[in-house]
Design a protein that fits this description.
Layout lengths: L6 E3 L5 E2 L8 H13 L3 E9 L5 E9 L4 E9 L2 E3 L9 H11 L2 E3 L16 H6 L19 E6 L11 E7 L2 E8 L7 H5 L7 H6 L6 H15 L6 H29 L3 H22 L8 E2 L2 E2 L5 H26 L2 H7 L7 H7 L3 H5 L7 H4 L20 H24 L17 E8 L4 E8 L5 E7 L1 H12 L8 H8 L3 H4 L2
Parallel strand pairs: 6-7
Antiparallel strand pairs: 1-5, 2-13, 3-4, 4-5, 8-9, 9-10, 11-12, 13-14, 14-15
Helix pairs in contact: 6-7, 7-8, 7-14, 7-16, 8-9, 9-14, 14-16
Length: 505
């Protein structure tokens, strides 16, 4: 018997796939909207083919104050009433649904593909014979006027970064509108994960976003552990937490250095570049790889720490804390730096809530959402890291939140190394439960990571959905550029530092 209402589950709690329910479309829409009005956030909104020409539209709405995820679904065919006009958080999710499946969210205010245009109609026939993907061909918003001009940046950029296209509508130096086009190297990872887990699965997971190896690996392994009823040893939970915070510190320090470089402040840029390398080397001490690949595995971690390694990591953490304080505090004491950081790319808290921002950009606008506290997992169920917030919502706020998190993460690492429990670090994993689903959240360094997995009758992945924090935040970058100088784009872009590949899964 199908569910006629939504259900509430905890972070990482397995449940029967049938419990997604099958609401009528209006009931589905009403429950999602009501949950968001009451402070909820859309963590995932996606569609899956049902097998009979229709699709299941599924949503996971995070209710932070209750530490639960509202899970609900409906059946749709070629279209359904769009959520976006009343819930801007659904904006990019619904565009992706249309792009992937041809299901039209009727009434969507700006229905265009997230990555590349859809050709050949909609619905099941289009899914069965999808047309060739053509990147970079899309309708862009245009402004008219004698003094309006268009500036195109990318998709090819200087340096070793992935491609992304940015199109600005400007009057003089003032940006009125920015559109972001991605997907030039779309890899189809979610499709490749179906039928797993297998020997390739963990490789895909660790490279979803190369700078977020630990964050995505933890979210994935927790899904496996929940579906297989595997209990991770306490020592492994601590090592995972240490690795996650080192990943956060390395990337935050690197971003602070890059922000300094964007305004020509070379001392902090140079110091932070070296310090980032020191932190990456600490991760290498954990597992032999500077990005943490090979460390997190279903059932725990693949590498243990002996006493000399624990002592050395603690020593290095204290050194990094001291060196970073010297390098970063130079920024806050430089009037020229603060003149560029303050009041640049500002986002109000209400706007952040409306469009569903997560991670540093949300916390820099005063929104205290952090999965480690709101939906605690692993060691964070027992050892809390204070949530770092600011209220300016500008480049300075996003930089300063990073600095607060660096300090608190390093303190956490030092404390956990002192109290590392004894015991095993890896527990054997049994078969996955059939016809089951799970949603796992983790707080990566960019923000909330969401993995949604469902097994079939043979205990293999029927489908696998990933929402990287960048998917929530790219639109926030576009909004932050409005009424800014186009010369401020590199600075605003770096203050978000979003992932191209994490967005294009």
């Amino acid at each position: 018997m199908s569910q006629t209402t939504s259900i509430a589950v905890h972070n990482g709690q397995a449940f029967a796939t049938g419990d997604w329910g099958d609401l009528d479309v209006e009931r589905f829409r009403s429950e999602v909207l009501n949950a968001v009005v009451k402070g909820g956030r859309i963590s995932a909104l996606f569609a899956q083919p049902r097998g009979d020409g229709a699709f299941r539209l599924m949503a996971a709405v995070a209710q932070d104050s209750q530490s639960v995820l509202r899970v609900l679904a409906t059946s749709v065919e070629s279209e359904y009433p769009s959520l976006t006009p009343l819930c801007p958080q659904a904006h990019w999710f619904e565009r992706e649904i249309w792009e992937q499946h041809g299901v039209v969210p009727a009434g969507h205010p700006w229905l265009k593909p997230v990555r590349f245009p859809r050709r050949g109609g909609s619905g099941a026939a289009a899914v069965a014979s999808p047309p060739p993907a053509v990147c970079g061909l899309a309708d862009f918003f245009q402004m008219n006027g004698a003094e309006i001009h268009e500036v195109a940046v990318g998709p090819v950029h200087a340096g070793i970064i992935e491609p992304g296209h940015f199109r600005f509508q400007c009057q003089g130096e003032t940006v009125y509108h920015l559109e972001i086009s991605l997907g030039y190297q779309h890899r189809g990872v979610e499709a490749a994960l179906a039928g797993g887990p297998n020997r390739r699965t963990i490789h895909y997971i660790e490279t979803l976003a190369g700078d977020t190896t630990i964050g995505h690996a933890i979210a994935h392994c927790r899904a496996i552990e929940s579906l297989s009823h595997t209990r991770v040893p306490p020592r492994a939970q601590v090592i995972r937490g240490i690795a996650l915070e080192l990943e956060r510190v390395a990337n935050h320090v690197g971003d602070l250095g890059a922000l300094a470089g964007d305004v020509g402040f070379l001392p902090t840029m140079s110091y932070c570049g070296r310090i980032r390398g020191d932190v990456l080397n600490m991760t290498a001490l954990l597992c032999g790889n500077r990005f943490g690949r090979g460390l997190v595995r279903p059932g725990g971690v693949a590498f243990d720490l002996d006493d000399p390694a624990v002592t050395e990591l603690a020593r290095r953490a204290r050194t990094v804390a001291k060196d970073a304080a010297v390098a970063v505090n130079l920024l806050w004491n430089s009037p020229s730096v603060m003149g560029r950081f303050e009041r640049t790319g500002s986002l109000a808290a209400d706007l952040c809530r409306q469009i569903g921002l997560v991670g540093v950009p949300a916390r820099a606008s005063g929104i205290g959402h952090d999965v480690r506290q709101d939906f605690p997992f692993g060691i964070f169920r027992f050892a809390q890291i204070p949530v770092s917030t600011w209220d300016s919502g500008d480049v300075f706020g996003r930089a300063y939140v990073r600095w607060l998190e660096v300090q608190r993460s390093l303190a956490f690492v030092i404390d956990q190394l002192k109290a590392l429990p004894p015991g095993a670090v890896l527990q054997p994993v049994g078969p996955l439960a059939p016809a089951s689903s799970v949603i796992t959240l983790a707080e990566g360094w960019r923000g909330e990571i969401c993995h949604v997995a469902a097994t079939d009758a043979d205990s293999r992945f029927a489908w696998y959905k990933v929402v990287d924090p960048s998917f929530h935040n790219w639109f926030g970058l576009a909004i932050a550029l409005r009424n800014q100088q186009i010369s401020d784009f590199p600075l605003c872009n770096k203050s978000f530092n979003l992932s191209y590949c994490g967005h294009d899964l």
